[in-house]
Design goal:
Elements: H1 2-17, H2 35-61, H3 65-73, H4 76-96, H5 108-137, E1 142-144, E2 147-150, H6 158-193
Antiparallel strand pairs: 1-2
């Protein structure tokens, strides 16, 4: 009887000392990103990849059956608007999980990784936001997959148009370069350093 009670007490102590999984893996933890963060990350990756695929296909081959099909599933403006919405969700979710997310490593590498992520978020917000502002400033209709959000109008607002005209193209290619660098660094961490940086965004660790 005493032995059974002792075993029960030890078992309860063990469970008390073991942290419970947070929301069945939906929330982030210090070692891994949760399901929502991972879905938002890979959704962003898919949208940005489709955006550049459509753009490069049109520039490389012009109008044909393939490019028309790609443009039908990924209209440039609609994809940009979707990227903006997903990025806002990511920022909100990152804020909610700010005290329990995986941290950047110390030293120069960690500072560079943090700077790259800040730049990523800035570009993912700036590029679609100012493209939408330019479209509005020109009086063009704003559509999302055929659904009209704002009708056409007679206007020409220079301060809305100028920033995107000046910087949309160069910053788009900067984003493309950062994406390629991000992929390269993830592979280097996986196959060269053999650490768990990539695993944090692939599995919940449970």
């Amino acid at each position: 009887m005493v032995k059974g009670a002792a075993n029960t007490t030890a078992l309860n102590s063990h469970h008390a000392g073991t942290p419970a999984p947070t929301s069945l893996g939906w929330r982030d933890s210090p070692s891994h990103y949760g399901r929502i963060s991972r879905v938002l990350h890979w959704l962003t990756a898919a949208l940005v990849t489709l955006q550049f695929t459509v753009l490069l296909a049109w520039r490389g081959t012009g109008e044909n059956t393939i490019t028309l099909f790609l443009a039908s599933i990924g209209p440039h403006g609609s994809l940009g608007f979707l990227i903006l919405i997903v990025t806002l969700f990511r920022l909100g979710w990152a804020w909610v999980n700010r005290k329990q997310r995986p941290s950047h490593p110390p030293g120069l590498g960690g500072h560079l990784a943090r700077l790259m992520h800040i730049t990523f978020y800035g570009l993912l917000l700036w590029l679609p936001a100012f493209a939408i502002l330019r479209q509005y400033g020109r009086g063009g209709a704003l559509r999302f997959y055929g659904m009209e959000l704002l009708p056409e109008a007679e206007r020409d607002i220079t301060w809305m148009i100028a920033p995107a005209d000046l910087l949309h193209g160069p910053l788009s290619w900067l984003l493309c370069g950062l994406v390629l660098g991000h992929i390269a660094m993830a592979l280097i961490h996986r196959f060269w350093f053999k650490d768990k940086v990539l695993a944090r965004m692939v599995s919940s660790g449970h």
